[in-house]
What does this fold into?
Amino acid sequence: MPAKSDADLDAILSGTTSMLNGGEGCRRQEYLEQGAKLEDLKAALVRIEPASFSRYHQLLKLLNSGEYGWNVKTSKDRIVLFTERIETMRFLAAQLRKDLKLNEQTVQEMCGFQMPPSLMKF
It folds into this structure.
């Protein structure tokens, strides 16, 4: 699963820091300690890169293998990947485009709740 962007993490930490600075007495110290832990977590999260995702690399290996037989140049040769989370779908689409040098038309994202009724017919 992809890490949040730096801006997302900064927004979360900024809101949390504001809340922590408003603490009083012994609770304030607890809040400050929690804030420090969140900063450490942010530092760890921003270091996570696609190279860390072994399942993704297994997928790339499969798609590139001759045994699998997928040919990106054949328009009728399609692959459908299902994900549980929308962020995972977005990550996969962007990363596959980059790693396989594909355009947006070739790798498309589709959410079940966004499908037009005409595509839902079997």
Observations:
- Residues 50-114 form one domain.
- The helical segments are 6-21, 25-46, 54-64, 86-100, 117-120.
